Write the structure tokens for this entry.
Amino acid sequence: MATIAVVGTLDSKGHEHAFVAERIRELGHEPLLIDVGTLTEPQVKADISREAVLSEAGVNLPREEDRGRRVGAMAEALPTLLARLAGGGAIDAVISLGGSGGTAIATAGMRALPIGFPKLMVSTMASGNTADYVGAKDVVMFPSVVDVAGLNQISRTIFTRAAGAICGMAAARVGEGRSVAAEGIQFDDHMSLPREFGYDPFTVALYRKDTGKEPPSDPGDPAWVQWRADRLTAFMEQLSQAIRQARPGAIISISPNYYDFAYKLQLQDWRSWVQKGIADELLIQVYRPDLASYLPQLNKPEVQEAKARIPTAIAVLSGQRNRPCTHRLDPLEVEQQDKARNQDETTAGTDHRSVDADNAREDEQCGNGQRIHGPESGTRVRPQRGARSSEGVILAVMSAESPGVVRPAVSQLPAYRPGKGAAQAEAEHGITDAIKLASNENPYAPIPQVVDAIAAAAVEVNRYSDHRAGELRSAIADWHGVSDDHITVGCGSVGLIQQLFLTYVDPGDDVVTPWRSFEVYPIDTMLMGAQLVSVPLVHGAFDLDAVADAVTERTKLVLIATPNNPTGPAVSTDALRAMLQRIPRRVIVLIDEAYREFVDPSFGDPVHDLLPDFPNVVVSRSMSKAYGLAGLRVGYLVADPAVVTEVDKTLLPFAVNLVAQAGALAAVRHRAEYQPKIDAIISERERVVSELEAAGWQLFPTQANFVYLELGDRTDEIYVELERRGVVTRPFAGEGIRVTIGTPAENDRFLAALAEVIS
């Protein structure tokens, strides 16, 4: 058993270090928790206090609250303690978690330890220049991926792996050979019997006991398949617990077929295995002779969901030794084949019968599939970061010939996933007349004046538009009763939000937002190399006090979406004012009002109620939702002129095209004509909410043009079943679905389909 020093700023990251200490203890080693915090009281009890660390080296913390000076003092003290502990054999390894300050302190101590002594730093700074932290020593910099600010699904995974890594380093004996026990277990696609084999006496008796019914004669009966799949899932849960108890840190790897085939024919509900934490690694067996054949499977929601949770890979068909398949999988080919697929959309791979036929033909041509393990044997396809398919699933093609060196912030970036289109759903499920309620679009066509303005502008598209969209800015300014210099226009409010990031956020800065919220926020944060500080929602709404509490000297930007996307609640200007009074004026606070027109006026107007008193407030609004111009991409900011001046510097030249400016200008000038459409959507929203509540649903109070259903583990199932009935919604894996308010007929169809799925 090794003793591992767990060094951390326990005043701000105590719970995170306690978590790592517990994982170390579970792996059979003894943690020694050392506090190097410099400000407030520690969140958890340390084995060695900060006072003891300081006294070891005869160092005192500066009395002033200057964080840099206090961090420097602790960085001076820690090396003395660690050197003594390591030299006396009291510790065998050291690990720490931190941002910039915590990393500076911990690595100063690590550099005092000899080469070969295990030292691991889990840090937000690991993706940048680490020379100052590592020095001439063998400090291992372990990227934290997310900010070390609380425990969530991602951070727990990272911290657990880091604990396993330091335990492995501590247990390794240099120059000593020893046998190594199995590090994990791998389940192949044939780990369960086909569904037709479920009529043995044991299974029949168990089914009778559980349900009081006789098994159906049809082996494909949905309830029968689900019962057997649930039994297999329960077995996998028990087995995984037994494996991890017997061998802490063991990896459970699964290699099922694509989901529909695995679930319906082999009873493997591997989506649930991933969601329940049963599987640590997913290797999907989708054997195909060319890249284009892989793309439909890579675009599946279940693959995207798995990728967000655990390492996920997909097999490449290389053929047999005497019957090889030849195909180059490089980024250019990805792009070319993806474009070709978009031009000739097919349903191949969505129905298990057609896929089985495809597999048979491919086996005839190329033999059975094999995984390729490196460039020397071909190439490797992993759903990590790289070329992107048309639906946003990220496909990494690892090739020695790949051009360029991608920025780490971009290589780790998840792709924005738009709502699925009706045509795509129809192709995937072999249905017709699907409706799209996935993207919060206005279901009604633009008013005639807008259509006419677009048509008139179209004849002049040989000319550039007005870069500043001066006429449109002026019209929006008149609309809101402000001067022109308070307005900037951009490529949708999404484009303007990205401009805010470009203007104000540097690598290493903090961005604070309630979560779950708009998916672009973490993407833009990662793009800038900043850290997202997420504040949990309370019953689907914001805890604005907690948001203010999360603001530190590192915070550059606070993001508040009201109404919140995807949950729907709005925030009053009175509540926002109370929050703003606690936030320094140097911090930009974005109030994202994409759904402004659907909000009850009693919530107030931030432009008039807040902006005059808080020059750090920026209000973003969109022409996409209420005004039905989603396809034109026009948004605007209302802000202090000083903010507008700086944000305008990041505007892509001619970002708002000529046609978009004309259409938006007509919409602003004739906005009164839109009010009946807006009123109709609000009326339908209230009707849909009323009918859902009457059916027993507990909903968040929405002020947007959508409703949100909390579904938890049933999210994926209900989303797919609705889609099979021609109703396309927006799922959030393991959480719920967002449903756009459509026309009365579309809403009726959604309600009927939901009732059918739930019954």
